């Protein structure tokens, strides 16, 4: 890499930020596309400061992660319609000083799902009611998919179900549901708690589609069990790479080298698990 006075800067901002694979994925994409640019990770707690910094330093694009996805919205110049509906921005694009917020998690999840199955006509149970659940819920609602939300905290789960116009079921009653598509959007099962699963094994039936948006490990306990029970499974890497590819396109106007991005992340994940 040749860093010089013309190098463009991109990054990811959140707190904590230590485990992000954004730099691995985006630097692979920037290099493969021959761009004079670099992508760094910034651990920042001051959300207003992060937007001021972006303007002051002319940072071209920023991924936004926990806990700033909603808090950043009032400081932006424009927010696209889907991100506003979801109430969360995971991408900021700096267009000649105008900071525009987007949500690419929603499209990333849909593209990852559609690579494995058709979503239309499926009854979907979304487990979790945080930012990722909101993004996926609004996207699937837009596709006419019948939804149900299950969440540990009833207050948060019921609020999301209300916003989506669907029903809520407490996580403890999830066995009473009968979904064709189950999507885990909680962090349950993520490293180092790899033997945990967000739902009881017995609700996983042959023929069901099970997606886990956790990608570390790539095969979570939920996906392992779902595979054993004859379900179609979708891991979290596809969503991560597709949402990153959408960010790349928004920032550079170029198509993203998806295979390069996927391989770069996969390599780091395999190294971590060996
Ligand atoms: N693959 C991807 O591209 C991608 C993209 C975005 C996010 N993610 C991953 O998705 C996960 C959630 O992200 P987020 O932004 O939605 O986070 P968030 O807004 O903090 O929401 C977290 C959700 O997980 C639930 N939860 C946390 N710990 C739990 C536990 N021990 N038992 C049951 N439920 C629990 C929370 O339930 P309560 O409401 O009860 O607290 C809430 O529904 C993270 O692991 C993140 O890394 C992946």
Please describe what this structure looks like.
The chain has two domains: 8-103 and 240-273, Leucine Dehydrogenase, chain A, domain 1 (Rossmann fold), CATH 3.40.50; 107-234, NAD(P)-binding Rossmann-like Domain (Rossmann fold), CATH 3.40.50.720. 45% of the residues are buried. It has 274 residues and is α/β, with parallel strands linked by helices. The radius of gyration is 19 Å and the shape is globular. It has helices at residues 22-32, 47-57, 81-86, 105-114, 131-142, 154-164, 221-228, 236-252, 258-273, and strands at residues 8-14, 37-43, 61-64, 78-79, 91-95, 98-102, 124-127, 147-151, 167-170, 181-184, 209-212, 232-234. The model has no long low-confidence stretch (mean pLDDT 95). The strands form two sheets. It has a six-stranded mixed β-sheet, sandwiched between helices. It has a six-stranded parallel β-sheet with strand order 9-8-7-10-11-12, sandwiched between helices. Helix 4 packs across helix 8 (236-252). Helices cover 37% and strands 20% of the residues.
Question: What general outline do the C-alpha atoms trace?
Answer: globular
CATH C-level name of the largest domain: Alpha Beta
Radius of gyration: 19 Å
CATH architecture of the largest domain: 3-Layer(aba) Sandwich
By DSSP (H or I, 4+ residues per run), the number of helices equals 9
Helix content estimate: 25-40%
Give the integer mean of the pLDDT values.
95
What class, by secondary structure content?
A: alpha/beta
Number of domains as seen in the coordinates: 2
């Amino acid at each position: 890499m040749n860093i010089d006075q013309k190098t463009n800067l991109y990054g990811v901002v959140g707190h904590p930020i230590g485990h992000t694979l954004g730099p691995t994925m985006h630097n692979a994409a920037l290099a493969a596309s021959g761009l004079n640019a670099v992508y760094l990770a910034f651990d920042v707690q001051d959300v207003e400061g992060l937007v001021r910094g972006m303007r002051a330093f002319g940072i071209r694009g920023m991924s936004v992660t926990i806990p700033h996805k909603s808090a950043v919205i009032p400081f932006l110049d424009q927010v696209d319609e889907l991100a506003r509906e979801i109430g969360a921005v995971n991408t900021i694009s700096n267009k000649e000083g105008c900071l525009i917020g987007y949500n690419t998690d929603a499209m990333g999840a849909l593209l990852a799902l559609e690579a494995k199955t058709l979503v239309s006509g499926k009854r979907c149970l979304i487990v979790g009611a945080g930012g990722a659940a909101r993004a996926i819920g609004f996207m699937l609602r837009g596709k006419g998919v019948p939804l149900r939300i299950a969440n540990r905290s009833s207050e948060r789960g019921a609020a999301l179900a209300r916003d989506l116009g669907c029903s809520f079921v407490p996580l403890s009653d999830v066995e009473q549901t009968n979904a064709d598509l189950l999507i885990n959007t909680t962090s349950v099962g993520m490293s180092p708690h790899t033997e945990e699963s967000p739902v009881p094994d017995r609700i996983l039936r042959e023929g069901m589609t099970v997606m886990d948006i956790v990608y570390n490990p790539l095969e979570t306990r939920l996906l392992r069990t779902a595979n054993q029970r004859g379900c179609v499974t979708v891991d979290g890497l596809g969503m991560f790479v597709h949402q990153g590819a959408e960010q790349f396109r928004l920032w550079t106007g170029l198509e993203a080298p998806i295979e390069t991005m996927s391989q770069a992340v996969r390599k780091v994940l395999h190294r971590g698990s060996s």
